[in-house]
From TrEMBL:
Keywords: Membrane, Transmembrane, Transmembrane helix. The keyword Glycosyltransferase does not apply. Residues 68-113 have a biased composition (Low complexity). The chain crosses the membrane at residues 173-194, 201-221, 227-244, 256-277, 297-315, 356-378, 398-420. This is Membrane protein. InterPro entries: YibE_F. It comes from Pseudarthrobacter defluvii. Residues 68-118, 438-460, 472-502 are annotated as: Disordered.
Length: 502
């Protein structure tokens, strides 16, 4: 108990000042919320009389763009009633009132074909004829039953329909229901498998997005130091997420220390790489938009924050896994030495490193797939492709994040081994391995060597699976030789486990 209290005091002595320093930095960097000097046109702002409406597609047709927009402009009633068979009326009125447009409609080869969707408005009324964007029609298309959002220009001042333009223009699909269903399914699966810990993780995720939306993003807009913003924001997120999801324990504190170490390495590498590789967002439409939005926004700073934030989830994954692996291995073989425990845990860590590197690379490749296809079609040399403005940011993001998480694994494992040996069951106790015996046999057990006819001990094996098997074998032998030792030790192990998990 004295050793456990000492280890917990050491962890608290390191983490509490770090948490207070982080909160002080957050208070000093907290954005004012002012958007002075920001000039960004809202793409969803509309002119008087123009609205964004939603509806369900009833029918999809293809027709001449010039002909159909002409009908729509000269006879709005005819447009609204296309689905009810009154198209001829619109054509007759077009011919009588605007003969100048008759020639383009009848001339062969004039105009191109457009896709139109007869859509029933959600607010009620007759179906309207919505023109579908050519890129949407070519890549994805629309079909009856799709819910869409469209721009309604029919009531605009000086309606453009009289100039041959459509009155209803496709804007986007309505995706509310699929996203809600996926979110509900995700929450159900997480809670069903992880139970209360999964629920706490979901709530922690909401808190993390709160920090991003209210601290990190506004701070970047106001021109706060990007490196400090990313470090402070990431540390706050990790402290909140880890302790809220996994509870206050030595195991969680160990994972947090490893995470902060990996985060610091990632931040330093990201700061150097952003400057050395001259990452400035060249060729990105979003970056160009931000440059023209405010003079306070630094595109390099935004990229730097992105390099740090993008690796948070994977970094948290490997550190908490390594910390848990050390604890579980120790509970299987509490008599194993610190060196053997570290070696066994690092075998798990190496497997995790290999799979996690693939995870990062493929995740970024999937997100950048359209860019990869475009770059491939350029048919440039491989090195020129990887160092181009289009791909260099993703390549550096992958390398920086991978280096940070790889270095975090041995550090987390070492901290976890030191803590678990200090807070766990002492091997020198009265019921520990080798206690209650004397002579050469006890000396052999204390030294961790094989005895009793070549039986294996925890410190004699060099494989994680063999370590667990050796631990079980030792317990079985002690049950036969010392019937009173095993229950006492198991009770102590359970007490240590409960104390660790809070």
């Amino acid at each position: 108990m004295a050793a456990r209290s000492k280890a917990n005091r050491i962890l608290a002595a390191v983490l509490i000042p770090l948490a207070l320093l982080t909160l002080a930095g957050m208070a000093a960097l907290w954005p004012s919320g002012s958007k002075e000097g920001v000039s960004l046109a809202n793409p969803y702002a509309t002119a008087p009389g123009v609205t964004f409406d939603t509806g369900t597609i009833q029918n999809v047709v293809t027709g001449n763009c010039m002909q159909d927009t002409g009908q729509q402009g000269t006879n709005q009633q005819g447009t609204n009633q296309q689905g009810s068979g009154q198209q001829d009326t619109g054509q007759q009125q077009t011919g009588q009132q605007q003969p100048a447009q008759q020639a383009p409609q009848q001339a062969p080869g004039q105009g191109s074909d457009c896709t139109f969707a007869f859509t029933e408005p959600d607010k009620g009324g007759s179906p309207v004829k919505v023109v579908i964007n050519p890129d949407v029609a070519a890549s994805h298309g629309v079909k009856p039953g799709d819910q869409i959002r469209y721009l309604n220009l029919s009531n605009a001042q000086g309606a453009t329909g009289s100039q041959g333009s459509p009155a209803y223009i496709f804007v986007d699909f309505v995706r509310t229901m699929p996203i809600v269903l996926l979110a509900v399914l995700y929450a159900v699966v997480v809670i069903a498998v992880a139970r209360w810990r999964g629920l706490r993780a979901l709530i922690g995720l909401v808190g993390a997005y709160f920090v991003l939306a209210n601290f990190l993003l506004p701070g970047l807009v106001e021109g706060k130091p990007p490196l400090l913003l990313a470090l402070v924001g990431s540390t706050v997120i990790m402290i909140g997420v880890l302790y809220f999801a996994h509870g206050f324990s030595a195991r969680t504190s160990t994972a947090l220390l490893g995470t902060i170490f990996g985060l610091a390495i990632t931040a330093l590498l990201a700061a150097w790489a952003t400057n050395a590789a001259n990452l400035a967002g060249v060729g990105s439409h979003d970056a160009a938009t931000l440059v023209n939005t405010s003079s306070n926004i630094s595109i390099s700073g935004v990229i730097l924050c992105g390099l740090i934030i993008s690796g948070l989830g994977v970094l948290n994954d490997v550190t908490i896994t390594q910390s848990s692996a050390v604890w579980e291995l120790y509970e299987l073989a509490p008599a194993s030495s610190a060196r053997k425990l570290f070696t066994s845990a690092m075998r798990i860590g190496r497997d995790h490193i290999a799979s996690t590197v693939y995870t990062i690379a493929f995740a970024y490749a999937g997100a950048a797939l359209p860019i990869l296809i475009i770059v491939m079609l350029y048919d440039r040399p491989l090195m020129d492709t990887l160092t181009s403005a289009e791909l260099s940011e993703e390549v550096i993001r992958t390398l920086v994040g991978s280096i940070g998480l790889v270095l975090a694994i041995p550090v987390t494992t070492l901290i976890a081994v030191l803590v678990v040996k200090a807070t766990g069951i002492s091997a020198a106790g009265p019921n520990a391995l080798g206690a209650g015996t004397s002579g050469p046999s006890a000396a052999g057990k204390a030294g961790g060597v094989a005895d009793d006819g070549g039986h294996s001990h925890a410190d004699d094996v060099a494989d994680t699976g063999a370590l667990a098997a050796a631990a079980l074998e030792e317990r079985s032998r002690r049950t036969a030789v010392e019937p009173g030792a095993l229950p006492t030790e198991e009770a102590g192990t359970r007490r240590g486990r409960r104390a660790d998990r809070g």
